[in-house]
Amino acid sequence: MTSQQNLAIQSNSSKIENTIEGSDKSNMINMITIDVSNGNKSNQKRVLTTQEISKSFRIMAYRKSKRQIRGRYRRRSYTRIFWFIMFMLVFLSLIGAGIGGSLRSVGTRERWPEFVTFIISFTIIMYVYYKITEIVRWCFYWLAIATIILLIINKGSLVSEDKGFASTPEARILIIVLGAVECLTLFIWIIVRYVYPRIVKNAKWLDTIWWWRIKQESNVHIHDIHGRDAVGCFRYLAWESYSLWFRHGAVTYIGEVNANGRPHGRGEWVDDSFDGECLKGVWDGKYFYLIILDGVPVGPFQSRGSGTGDAFHAVRVGFVKNSHTPWNEQRLFPRPYQNGLDIAVASVECSVSGKYLKNLPKSTLILSPRSRESRDEETNKPIIENCLKNLMTFTSMEPDFDVEDATQSSVFIRAENDGFAITGFYPISTKTSRDEVIVKRVPKKNDSVHSEIEYTLEVNGWRPSVTSSSSNSSGCFRSSMECIIFIHGFNCPPKYATETLGQFLALGDFPSYIKPFVFSPPSANSLWYFGVKKQASSEQAINDFRLFLQDLRDAGFCAVHILSHSMGGMLTLQYAKAFEGIFQVRNSLDKDTRDTNIYSENEGTLMKLSTVTLLNPDAPLKQFISQGYARLNRYCDNITIYSNARDFPLKIGEIIWREECLGRQTKDLHHDGKLMNVDLIDTTQLDVNIHKVRHNFFNLNRLLVDDLRDIIVIKRRAKERRSRLSRKGRGVGLEGIVYTFLVAPSYVVNK
Fold it and tell me: Can you tell me where the transmembrane regions are (predicted)?
């Protein structure tokens, strides 16, 4: 059997026992041609029927409707604003003239209510234009047209000269028509925005095949090098947003299916319509909470709009929260503290390229929150083991989606205090030398005899941490795992925190051996700052964080990266009290500062605190200098602080607390008369993807995402990131610890 074969699979073949309800099999001539590039793969395919694909089609149609209805973010157009203001001035001037025509006998001084009404109306309408939904604008447009017609009917006045308002037949007809048009507009908007998407998603009475006119496609050519389970090609009829009309589209699915013939596992969906999408990733048979649906893309996946070109990815994020804190609840005052931690996994879908969608990021539960003390029913392992199994990445599955294995063409080696370290590799045994590294160029294994020889790199005594998803459970791979712990601030439910971290991970495309977790402090979902600060920094909360670190250590993690934002920075300084016996003490510290007995006994089980990053930390500067820095520096040699002198919330905090805040410092920091061993990154001058309050932008700004990725993955210090950062001087021949980004303001362009 050759490596390239054409396999014709007929949907009415006797080898495949699939039937299509309501179809005449004698009149069906549907043929799907598949190229199989790997001779070792099975050529038998299951051809999916319209009945089997119908539920997945509805889910994808629901996703499409959400993108169409919610729309995309767009740049504010000053030209559009100008013409709207001109229209408003003309419209309100006509209203003023109409009112003035009916009040000729009123004196000028007595007309001040007209001017006040004009100003208030103009302000409200401008607010509506900026803030309120599109439906309100359309209702206003109809009102403006009706007002102009009424002025024409009454010859420049809103009311007739001898009669009251709407006393003429023409005025009554106009008001009736206006009311009917306004109600019809509102009715259509409710149907399109709320009712129809819910019907598509949940209505059992909707006949999917009839509504979209789904039919099996014939004479389709598909390329599949992996011999996946099933394939289905269909045509349908649907409304397209760009043409404002109905057109035929084609849908193809190829991948794994469950017993009911619905997508389950790894699969690829291609919809060629303008609002359709090309999605590669993981599908599952359960759709969160208590609603059971088959054939749902749950992530990780990568998708791109067929016509728009917009890209949106889904990543998986683990999170840990207090057992009595709902993951999507936001409260005014915090709940009383209660013991217990829950661990769960969520899938976060985010926009990553093109126009960003307004309905993203969006997080949904993959594994519902369960107590950290519970065990998996099937394997009887701790629940965190089950979470790790579900924290898969798209990178680890790329070979399953026709993406060839990336040839290892470079190896990043860095010198640390205890020897060499290689990014993306881990030593096979403790006997592996850390004083020298031998890198070899070897031929890459290839299944095809006639293909061109490719080469890759191998490191003696080291093994790549980036492995296929099928190897995630191996002991060697688990020993190389690293973890990102994101500690967020107050007024942030766990659901929103997972979306924030998910957006950062989707843009950063982190390797599969780095597992992300959100640690949600107790009561962090509350709006009451003082209550959250007290409860989240309590001894009980510190103990909860220590328990979580112990679970990571027991699960086989070798290194941890702490990423904190806002109040999370202050909590990181408090939680450092729990590091003893969890993390290794830095080798470069003096022996007098280390407890050698404790260190030698637990050296084999201790994790490494690789990096600590404080983003706009809401922490007192004095506390960091006197206590926090020494605690962190004892365990971590790579501490980074991102500050912004124009951070508005932190500035308000300084006024209230009457003390300097660490997140607004842009000058060198000293400890015991010496420069601190930290990197202070000044983001004051950045102005891209940054809100006016300038407090939370690390997960959207491309410079920050790349900079943070270098810190976490490659573990580069700021002085090694010279292509992106510039170091501030502190005197003649002296350099400080403050860095700024090498970037021009957004308003500077070439002439």
Answer: 81-100, 112-130, 135-153, 173-196, 731-749
Burial 322-349, CB ≥16 within 10 A → b, else e: beebebeeebeebbebeeebbbbbbbbb
DSSP class per residue in 408-474: -----EEEETTEEEETTEEESSTTS-SS---EEEEEPP-S-SSSPP-EEEEETTEEES---GGGTTS
Sign of CA dihedral 484, 485, 490, 492: positive
Q: Which distant-in-sequence residues (6+ apart) come within 8 Å of 402 by Cβ? A: 223, 224, 225, 226
Structure-token pair, residue 202: 């949940």
d(CA 730, CA 695): 27
265, 295 Cβ separation under 8 angstroms: no
Which two tokens mark 98?
A: 């109409």
Q: Could you report the per-residue pLDDT of 122-162, keeping only the tens digit for each? A: 676 666 665 556 677 777 778 778 877 877 777 666 666 65
Q: Where are the alpha helices (DSSP H) in 509-628?
A: 529-536, 539-554, 567-575, 596-602, 621-623
Asked whether the beta carbons of 587 and 418 are under 8 A apart, the reply is yes
Q: In 3-state terms, what secondary structure has residue 581?
A: coil
Distance CA 272, CA 292 (A): 28
- Of 625, 567, 66, 675, nearest in space to 364 by CA: 66
Contact 638, 610 (CB under 8 A): yes
**How crowded is residue 551: how many other Cβ atoms within 10 Å of its Cβ?**
21
Over residues 172-218, the pLDDT tens digits come to 888 889 889 988 988 988 888 889 998 998 888 999 999 999 998 86
- pTM (2 d.p.): 0.85
Domains of the chain by residue range = 1-17+28-72+212-309, 78-200
The neighbouring-strand residues paired with 234 are 216, 251
Q: Which amino acid does the sequence have at 418?
A: D
CA angle 506–512–518, rounded 5-degree value: 60
